């Protein structure tokens, strides 16, 4: 069983959480904060505390299929209650970008921050980066597990930055990267980009599988 399911802890390291806290203090503007992939809500409850501490009025949203472990959504809600946060103040979107983005686009929902920590393969991360279209100028993107173990995350984030000069890399701590939207330029993720991400994901899968066989 996952550690976060047992003790409802954060899956980010102390240094990564310190980086998130600093970015909130220095750069976060009031608005909606979306966490994509919450596990037990261990990082979420801390982020909520840090926005309160910084006095930044923020409404929280969580996007997750809630199939990570048994009773995941109930455990997240209990975890929040344990930190004196009313879970009814968090908007839970049950699903993935595929099932939830179109509605929020149609509603014109805007975000001041997006924390990407769901499915770490190249295609899902590329899809999650489509929420950047809903990000206010000055808004932040946090991405977790930007590391050799998750090459799909590195590929998707690097590709996003290379295609989008309207975004800058603010900083990095261990596997946590922080991006900021500088202006309103954004190159949308189109069908060709999704095909490219799918190919990269397949190539990386083959690479891991060949490496595993060779190591036997
Ligand atoms: C690594 S954990 C998240 C850890 C959490 N952010 C933290 O810091 O404690 C991954 C989470 O992503 C969710 N997930 C998996 N695929 C997803 C997807 N396509 N979209 C959103 N969430 C996803 C899982 O259910 C799980 O809750």
UniProtKB/TrEMBL annotation:
Pfam families recorded: Methyltransf_24
SUPFAM superfamilies: S-adenosyl-L-methionine-dependent methyltransferases
Origin superkingdom: Bacteria
Official protein name in the record: Uncharacterized protein
Organism: Brevirhabdus pacifica
Organism taxonomic ancestry: Bacteria, Pseudomonadati, Pseudomonadota, Alphaproteobacteria, Rhodobacterales
